Amino acid sequence: MREVIKMLVVLTMVSAVSGLALGFMNKITLDPIAQAEFKFAKEPALKEVLPEYDNDLVKDQFTIKEKDGTDVVVYPAKQGGKIVAVAFESSAKGFGGDVWIMVGIDLEKDILRGIGIVKQSETPGMGARMVEEPFKAQFKKDFPVSSVFAVKADGGKIDALSGATISSRAVCGAINDAFKFYQDNSTQIKNPQAK
After folding, report:
1. What span, in angstroms and rounded, lies between the C-alpha atoms of 69 and 54?
2. What is the pTM of this model?
3. Which residues contact residue 184 at a Cβ distance below 8 angstroms, ignoring those fewer than 6 apart?
4. Burial code of 152-174, b = ≥16 C-beta within 10 A, e = fewer?
5. Distances from the Cα of 95 to the Cαs of 55, 103, 124, 126, 164, in angstroms?
6. CA–CA gap between residue 83 and residue 33 (Å, rounded)
7. How many Cα atoms sit within 13 Å of 135 on the Cβ side?
8. How far apart (Å, rounded) are the C-alpha atoms in residues 79 and 86?
9. Cα(35)–Cα(44) distance, rounded to whole angstroms?
10. SS3 (DSSP) at 192
11. How does DSSP classify residue 1?
């Protein structure tokens, strides 16, 4: 009986030390991981969907809480102190997992400026081709934020990637969700100081 108790005490201590070590490592790596994710995934997508800007996107970012409690980070592009466009992420379920896109919106015209792919795990050579310009170029046609996107197979105007209709639908769905978010929060997006 003593051996069992001794093993339980040792196992509990090893588990506690391991848990503390993992928690500590998680805490010290959170910021470097977030910085790397911004630099290598979000920043290129932001540059793709926003016009020229003269502000610091990270410093000026603000968060809007959706009705379901989800926080959405909004990156405002300013020219001469005035917000001219914004970008934020949206996601939808693709074939290989969630597809995260950056959506850019021109605030003066209320139109889509374009999309950038932030993160995806779609099939290489098929759905992963969503990162290529021929597919993304379909979304750079001054679509108003009241538009609804769908692939041609579903009665829409978007050419789906060959053999990757589910991935193409995910991008369309993410844009539709982004437009809904923008419409629901346009007052706060256009004037973030007036909360």
Report:
1. 31
2. 0.84
3. 66, 67
4. eeeebebebbeebbbbbbbbbbb
5. 37, 20, 11, 10, 8
6. 29
7. 21
8. 12
9. 13
10. coil
11. -
Task: For residue 165, give both structure tokens.
Answer: 């209709």
Reading the block at residue 88, the tokens are 């934020």
Instruction: Identify whether the C-beta of residue 99 lies closer than 8 Å to the C-beta of residue 167.
Output: yes
Name the token pair of 94.
């693709």
pLDDT by residue, tens only, the chain of 195 residues: 888 888 998 899 999 989 888 988 888 887 777 677 777 889 999 999 999 999 999 999 999 998 888 999 999 999 999 999 999 999 999 999 999 999 999 999 999 999 999 999 999 999 999 999 999 999 999 999 999 999 999 999 999 999 999 999 999 999 999 999 999 999 999 988 865
Query: What letter represents residue 38's amino acid?
Result: F
Residues in CB range of 147: below 8 A, 6 or more apart: 112, 179
Alpha-carbon distance of 162 to 171, in angstroms, equals 14
- Residue bearing tokens 């969630």: 98
Tens digits of residue pLDDT in 28-55: 887 777 677 777 889 999 999 999 999 9
Are 62 and 193 within 8 A, CB to CB? no
